[in-house]
Specification:
Blueprint (H helix, E strand, L loop, with lengths): L10 H12 L6 E8 L9 E2 L3 H9 L5 H9 L5 H8 L6 E4 L5 E2 L6 E6 H6 L1 H25 L3 E4 L7 H15 L3 E2 L2 H7 L9 H6 L3 H11 L5 E3 L5 H17 L8 E4 L4 H14 L6 E4 L5 H9 L6 E4 L1 H4 L9 E9 L5 E3 L16 E8 L5 E8 L10 E4 L7 E4 L2 E5 L2 E5 L2 E2 L6 H12 L4 H4 L8 E4 L1 H13 L1
Parallel strand pairs: 6-7, 6-11, 8-9, 9-10, 10-11, 15-21
Antiparallel strand pairs: 1-5, 1-12, 2-4, 3-5, 3-19, 12-13, 14-15, 14-18, 16-17, 19-20
Helix pairs in contact: 2-6, 3-4, 6-7, 6-13, 7-15, 10-11, 11-12
Amino acid sequence: MKKNLSMLTDFYEFSMANGYLQNKMADTIAYFDMFFRDIPDGGGYAVMAGTEQLVEYLRDLSFSQEDVEYLRSKRCFSEDFLSYIKNFRFACDVWAVPEGAPIFPGEPIVTVRGPAVQAQLIETMVLLTINHQSLIATKANRMVHAAKGRTVLEFGSRRAQGADGAVLGARAAYIGGCGGTACVLCDREYGVPAAGTMAHSWVQMFGSELDAFRAYAKTYPDDCVLLIDTYNVLKSGVPNAIEVARGVLHPLGTRLKGVRIDSGDIAYLSKMTRAMLDEAGLSDCKIVASNSLDEFLIGDLLAQGARIDIFGIGERLITSKSSPVFGGVYKLAAIENRDGEIIPKIKISENVEKITTPCFKKVWRLQDKKSGKYIADVLTLFDEVIDPSEPYTIFDPNHTWKKKTLENYHAFPLMEQIYRAGQCVFQPKPIRDLQKDCRERVSCLWSEVTRFENPHPYYVDLSPRLWEIKNQLLQRY
């Protein structure tokens, strides 16, 4: 999984970087923010993921002689720029929201400060890395939320968009709350628990379904999950599974761990299967359901009384099929002159949602001490501090008369520094801890924010000083 992705850029990043050098702006310090505008599936929150892979990309960022010769062959880059690329050394500061944290539109989730050439060159990979994994982590968390405590497994490798989509998608899905994956490489590389049972081809390879079940049970007596829908779930699948549990597993001192249904009316079949298993004394046998599931189908199945213990989800998770784009963008927020003065920059558009928030910023998360729930996020200038020992008034930056004064709250900066002057200061966490962090942090959101239909918008506000600077720039331009 280790490979140099330094050339995975949009061509215009090289064009602009060369232009900065030619216009004596290569050493101008620039501040870029990555943020997103819309939450996938019309949801109330998203989940941050991909920071560890961003760290790895920046750590390996360098250009080979072959890369330099390729750029020279395009006949549009100066020799000074090619020399700069050949001797490239990453020197930026980078901050990012921790993986597993809920994130919201309009707030920086990655901030890069450094020489303009460098900060521009990494744009594509910053976006690609965070966009993809945040998309899948968000989708997984929605599905886990819909399952109401039942296990959700990621089964999507064969439907993913390429190998990285499969492996890193499974990683993100685990952070979002999935209990495991079918992807073996993700287990080996990232420690996401991999598991699997059988395909229909196993059953078809034997003379009968019963023979296939017996052979599997003898091979894996301690972890036997049988696929029961190859021929007929209720007439053969369940009866044969019961026969194998009694005739093969019980004499060995083990129990049938589960059965899987992959087609048909899963609500009806699961209820009938549960009744048959219970009657046979197999009330501890789990029922696994798969077959093109998503959070809405999970909710419908449970509302219909389906007796499902584990959901295996493939294409609709690994591709986030219903909302397959996480629209993160990477925009200039400020530059720094030679005297160290930070000069705010803004992008203005007739589309109001595309107007950016200028300045070098800090994201604060405010949490109610009594309920433990998150109240709002506030963007401030980087040198501002929110003191929770004092009342603090938040206001809607678009409708400024909407205000609320907070007391008895916690305030903490959301982003953490991961690179300082090109040196990695990131401390990776075990992936199980990232999943735990996600579970705990999402639980701090009000249920009105986490509901699927018409979620209440989470507040992302500006400090008075930041709002004033933005308003002045809007008036000026």
